[in-house]
Amino acid sequence: MNIKPLRLIAGLALVASTAAYAQSYPTKTITMIVPFAAGGPTDTVARLVGQSMSKSLGQQVIIENVGGAGGTIGAARVAKADPDGYTVLLHHIGQSTAPALYRKLTYNALDSFEPVGLITDVPMTFVARKDFPAKDFKELLAYVKANKNKVTYANAGVGSASHLCGMLFMSAIDTDLTTVPYKGTGPAMNDLLGGQVDIMCDQTTNTTSQIKSGKIKAYGVTTKSRVASLSDLPTLHEAGLPNFEVAVWHGLYAPKGTPKPVVDSLSKALQTALKDATVKQRFAELGTEPVAEARATPDAHRAFLKAEIDKWSPIIKKAGVYAD
């Protein structure tokens, strides 16, 4: 028996089935996993984007917060989910730092997912409790070095953006501080507002309103240029820490094996969301903006993620920071 025609028929049937599935997708609610606590900056980005994507997809996109272990618990859940397009992951820069930070990941940060597209690059701000004694960043540096055993640095947990920023800061000033890890940015910010911890480095999506209301002190932003929504705030480079730069990008992922037409549908809905006037306005208010359309594609995101993993792995390994 010649089995080649049978293989061809089977292949054509699979293509037809996949195409039919993609044409009908989605037919039910889509769950967007955010691997951090509700109320944090990544959660804010997800809710804005998810609400807009719901409109163009014709089905509700609900947010489910699955926090813990620097985002790896939520990411692992999506990696193991059915590759049908109904469970997706919205993660930040931690997707690229996890391979170096965690010795026992149950997934491959690059190969266990189908990247859908990048969403935004969020600047970070260096902030402190309202009554912190330093008036500006120059005084903060002097105070931190003189009181390194007393100053506490809050972060949202190992692998979080605030942890990464703090690690780079301490490396840059060659001073180790007492770090206080939390289970998410929300709880960390609450304790900063309450004066239980001293300083923190966090995304503008979580700090802008607190800075403008005067509830915390701000010393600088971590990008090359000033942020429009916080135009009076200098860059850390301007303030006295040369070439210090870190931004927190966010991206969308589906489980590995999700049909390409479904991934493309999600990517198209994401691109539409990033053009949404409401999303753009809210992003601007939070000190960020959507990425260019060319970056909100599967291929661009995959290439970017690989480059970020290659970038951060040697930095983290050199610092000797690991998590089980």
From TrEMBL:
Reading the lineage from the top rank, the first entry is: Bacteria
User: Record's InterPro entries?
Assistant: BUG (IPR005064), Bug_dom1 (IPR042100)
> Which keywords fit this entry according to its UniProt record?
Signal
Q: What CDD domains does UniProt report for this protein, alphabetically?
A: PBP2_BugD_Asp
Q: Which N-terminal stretch is annotated as signal sequence? A: 1-22
Pfam families referenced in this protein's UniProt entry, alphabetically: TctC
UniProt similarity note: Belongs to the UPF0065 (bug) family.
Name of the protein described by the UniProt record: ABC transporter substrate-binding protein
